[in-house]
Amino acid sequence: MKKLKSEVKRLRQELVLKPSAKTNRGGSNEHDGFEEGFTEEEEQAIQLISADQRKVLMELEQAGCSKEYIKKKLRSFVLNQDNGFMYMMDENRVFYQNNEIPFDELHYDRKLSEGGYGIVYRGRWKFTTVAIKEIKKEIIEQDKLEEFRNECAVMEVIRHPNIVLFLGACTRAPNLCIVLEYCSRGSLWSLLHDGHIKMSWEYRKKFALDIAKGVYYLHTNKQPILHRDLKSLNVLLDHALNCKLADFGWTRVKAKVMTSKIGTYQWMAPEVISGYKYTEKADVFSFGIILWELATRKPPYYGIDGQLVSQKVVKEGLRPKITEKEAPGPFLDLMKRTWHEDPEKRPTFSKIIQ
């Protein structure tokens, strides 16, 4: 609150406040439309922020967000006057408004899937079938928007045949969503576990190559990007059975030291589980688990709790079981090299593709 008061005082000194902008419960001003519950300093702060920022606060209030959350957002606006609400994603990433999609242009058909922070629908935009990834309302309230911000910022700048095409985003609260190309054949996970679908080794190799090309593109970007949650659930298939990487909420521009424990235990590299520093070789390990899925068409470590899997992967060198009869020799050899304990001994995606 002290910071808020000092910033309000500083901004008031910089601005010439017109009489009509002063708080007046009986008259009309730009604070009208908000419910009661703001202190005098907060009311002054509302007058000093931009019209767009006031609109964001009103939209949050209309969406049913708590007063404390709205006040927290107000403080962030005052203390960061140069930053917009949804456009500054992190130190190196910005979502540019030229890909902003008005929410009223979207038409929903049916729900496709649900994840930790979003629900994916099939829908239509400008007479085109699309996938709409809508951010859950409780995520807005909990201030856990980092995944959404990262996904917007990453997907806006990447273009590759083996990565789901980003069409735009709705970044105006309370309707936050990402609009993507629609992949009609669903996820690789679903395909692998559909017993009615026969899958030749040629197709399995094609899927592996598609995925490798997509990740290679990320790793060799001008600012190398680590996916960090590579798994069959995050690989989608279009009508022609081309694999496309999806779900970029946990991606990161490669830093000198990466230590965050991000991913899904069954696909997670031991160095990530342990909280040690890691590189793009963590994605190589996850790719190796996908190779095992392609070979066996089974869930990795089926029937074992994820936490227990993580402990055994680190302490006992646990890997999914596979016999020589379940995969061709070169495929099996590559799989085992990708999940090597030592990250330096895992091949790069350049070598994998070759």
TrEMBL record:
It catalyses: L-seryl-[protein] + ATP = O-phospho-L-seryl-[protein] + ADP + H(+); L-threonyl-[protein] + ATP = O-phospho-L-threonyl-[protein] + ADP + H(+). SMART domains: S_TKc. Its EC number is 2.7.11.1. Residues 106-354 form the Protein kinase domain. It comes from the Eukaryota. The keyword Transferase applies. GO terms for molecular function: ATP binding; protein serine/threonine kinase activity. Keywords: ATP-binding, Kinase, Nucleotide-binding, Serine/threonine-protein kinase, Transferase. It holds the Pfam family PK_Tyr_Ser-Thr. InterPro entries: Kinase-like_dom_sf, Prot_kinase_dom, Ser-Thr/Tyr_kinase_cat_dom, Ser/Thr_kinase_AS, Ser/Thr_Kinases-Pseudokinases. PANTHER family: MITOGEN-ACTIVATED PROTEIN KINASE KINASE KINASE 20, SERINE/THREONINE-PROTEIN KINASE TNNI3K-RELATED. This is non-specific serine/threonine protein kinase. It comes from Strombidium rassoulzadegani. The lineage of its organism: Eukaryota, Sar, Alveolata, Ciliophora, Intramacronucleata.
